[in-house]
Amino acid sequence: MTAKLKILRDFNLFSLPGGGIGNWLAEKTDEIVFERLATIDQNPLSKVQMNQLLLLAHEGSVSLGFFEYYWLDTSPEHPYDVKALPDFDEDWFKPPCTRIRSLKHLRWGLYRLYVDGLLFFGDIRNAYRVLRVKSKQDLVEFYKRHRFDTEAMKNRGPALPLMRIPKDNRYLISEMACKSYGENPATVSDLIDALKGAWQQHQKAGGGRVTIRQLMDGAKLKLDYADRHQQLLFSAEVILDEEVTSEKDLEERYRQIAKVFIETRKSALQNTKFYLSMVNDLDVYVATSMRTRQDFRNMANVCETVFSDQRLKNMEIRYFDPTLSAAEGHEDKGLIECLMVKCAKALVYCAGEKESFGKDAEAAMALSLGKPVIFLCDHEQRSRFYREVHPLSRLIHFETGVAVGVMVTDRVLDVPELLFRIFENKMQFKLEQPRPGYLRLVEKITKSVVRLQTSDTLLAQTFWNYYHNRPQA
Known about the structure:
alpha/beta; 3 domains; 21 helices; 12 strands
């Protein structure tokens, strides 16, 4: 195999149709370029000579700062772990470090550029145009803006403690429970009215000892509350299997659960105030939908597992736990949740038995804001997600046009690992080109596509012409 063919093969990942840096090493590139690169192991490549090779291929030259940042230095802090990229070798940076020492070294720097291009520009050619002229300090400052300030997170200290709510009682903060217990749950509510009506029907049928579940399964109650029967069952779950022998007995059982509801809701409303007070420091928003008491337990357990990770605790992570918060009304709840998504640095989407517009909208909003989104689901849901290409898996950051995707996992312990890597700026990615010109950036743990560049020329040109020329707000 000739040196040219070997270089074309080894650098095929960076070969893109349509010109630009992706067309630097191509079949039609001047033979001098390949001849010079073939001797790089014996004669390391300087910035001056690299620019000559770029210009011979009709590509723009690079600044000294660009050359140093991408090939000669790993000390500037970057938004991800550059040492985890393929081919990396510490020996390249032993003094004197002024040149590119091998084809692997050259390939590593190009890999960095392509990952950065997909992450922050969505388009490799435009990324190169913007970055190649910057000074090293400009590049350091540019990428600093895309990093999480990990040390500041660790040093900020703990937030005010939230009100504790037992896991078994958290279902009582749900909207279904609130609708059942109403504004004055101690004395008046739809739930007690339904129970009393059911008791009266039971008395007419002969009376006697009966469970609350049997009362609620009565034909008249189901008819009178046809559209709310499941809601009432949900709200009374804790007492459903208790037996009553009189209306007084029934009222006593109701008062017990109403008291728990009042205490639980009071704590949840207070927690919402605490969440609102920390919006400037909110790190993670947890999005989910909970329709059963067990859903609330499961969600509480997930949050406990994820955020008890010592690495996250060391960062004083602030996260919104949906099992601990309530609002005065449905509209207020929507406003609060939108604010939390907007303020949070990342979102964790927990799939339930059924999809819900609410959590889908929250995940879509986070992706459209360019935030990292982690999708936690069971194995079957994960398989279906990929098989059917869930619409939430590919959106764009509306401000920049960069295509963004979710990280999908069926392992709960992947979530704290991903959050740790995100906030420590240690994410790891793999670059793929499954077909000519079509680039994908894959997150290594979940193997999820988090960025992409299309090979459809018309789509790409139309898309970026709009984003680069649109009027600024």
